[in-house]
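Protein entry
_____________
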Amino acid sequence: MSPEKPINVVLVDDHRTVLQGLEMLINAERPAMSVVGTATTIDDACRICAELLPDVLILDLDLGGRNGIDAIAQLIENGRTAVLVLTGVRDSERHEAAVVAGARGVVPKEADAALIVKAIRKVHAGEIWLDRRSSQRVLSALASQVRPSPPTAVEGVIASLSPRQRDVVLALSTNPGAPAKQVAALLGITEHTLRNHLSSIYEKVGVSTRLGLYEFAQRHRLVP
């Protein structure tokens, strides 16, 4: 088997010492992951992200008086980059707002090195990184925003899902925030098989994350 491709990471923080510390931390994981760029402003972050198309972008919420949440939609519009918020802000509502805006997770700056590295791996794999309480509030907020869509070509998309793929959608949607290992165990499959199912499902329904799949399932009533 060929080795997995390294996770390319861009760091965005307006404190140079934080950038240096994170860069040393992540580059210590080579060849599994490495820092390919850094930025201290939102404008530079958007430019670098568009140029380098990183796998993961670690974003501070407060950048020179500007709100990092406002940039998330632009940072992820390339369809490849996963945003992971790393912040000293303790406001849970802002954390949840960042995920609703498109970030895949939030990690406090005081988290230990191993936790930061684990969060990078998880969001790169398409998972959401939030504590359980925040996960439930975020998913509830998304569910309250969606409305049933009128019959369209989406019916063909839903019909194209195999019975096993529907099982995967149901398991993920009824266990929001659960680790992939736990979901795989519920389905009686390996994590690798679960990832393969997810890749196929994401392509069919036009999403790229578990959060997006949850929203799709709620909107089109694929779960009870």
Q: What stands out?
A: The two ends are 40 Å apart (CA to CA).
